[in-house]
Amino acid sequence: MNANIPHPGEAAGANETTPILEDITCHSGGPGPDVMNAGSLTGDAVVNAAGESLGKIDAIMIDVRSGRVAYAVLSFGGFLGVGNKLFAIPWSALALDAIHKRFVFDVSRERLEAAPGFDKSHWPSMADPAWAKEIHDYYEAEPYWDDPLSTSGG
């Protein structure tokens, strides 16, 4: 893994919240990596800063009122999709590795395994402010609702 990977949340520009790790000479035209179809990100691999696999993106959750991406749902563990545990990861805690078409999440496997998670049949109420604060606090991520970009019309 590249030692120059910024810590998630450390954006290159003042208005960015999710860093994009890319070689600017490899743009292929079309959408991405700055604006992408959320469906095209589902199934993307997630690795930690050490390059260890942490799973795959299962879903991308949108805060409909603000129009912001709130969470990526990470599927981790299990075997062939059976027994996987799901984790809501604050969007700002991820960095997009555009070259390798994956996400980097700066967390150890052990910390992820100990994180609050859920299964496919029992999703949490992601609109519950107490639950949302717990998730953001656990990953030490700035809540998207505190980001000035999350206000509509801004």
TrEMBL record:
Instruction: Supply the name of the protein.
Output: PRC-barrel domain containing protein
Q: Which SUPFAM superfamilies does UniProt cross-reference here?
A: PRC-barrel domain (SSF50346)
Cross-referenced Pfam families, in alphabetical order?
Answer: PRC
Task: Tell me which PANTHER family the record gives.
Answer: BLR1072 PROTEIN
Q: Origin organism of this chain?
A: Thauera phenolivorans
Q: Where is the PRC-barrel domain?
A: 34-111
What domain of life does the native source organism fall in?
Bacteria
> Which lineage?
Bacteria, Pseudomonadati, Pseudomonadota, Betaproteobacteria, Rhodocyclales
